[in-house]
Amino acid sequence: MEQINYIAVIVTTFVIQFIGLLWYSPLLFGAKWMKLLKTNPDEVKAMGKTPHLLALITAFFMSFMMAFIIL
After folding, report:
1. For residue 38, what is the enclosing H or E element?
2. Can you give the pTM of this predicted structure?
3. CA-derived radius of gyration, the chain
C-alpha cells in the first residue's frame, strides 16, 4: 500500500471525470447521445437534481476505484 501514489490517483480521477464531462457535453457527443436516448434537455431538467447528483457521485467513486486499482 505504501507504493501507491495517492496524488496520481486523485489527479487521474479528476482527469477521467473531465474527459467524461467533455464527452457528454454539447461540444462533442452530448446532442447525439440525447438524440439516441430519445430525450431532450427539458426532460432531463424535469427529472430534478437528485438522480444527476447520485450518478455523478457514483461515477466519481468508480473512477477513483479504477485509478486506485490500475495505478
Report:
1. none
2. 0.77
3. 15
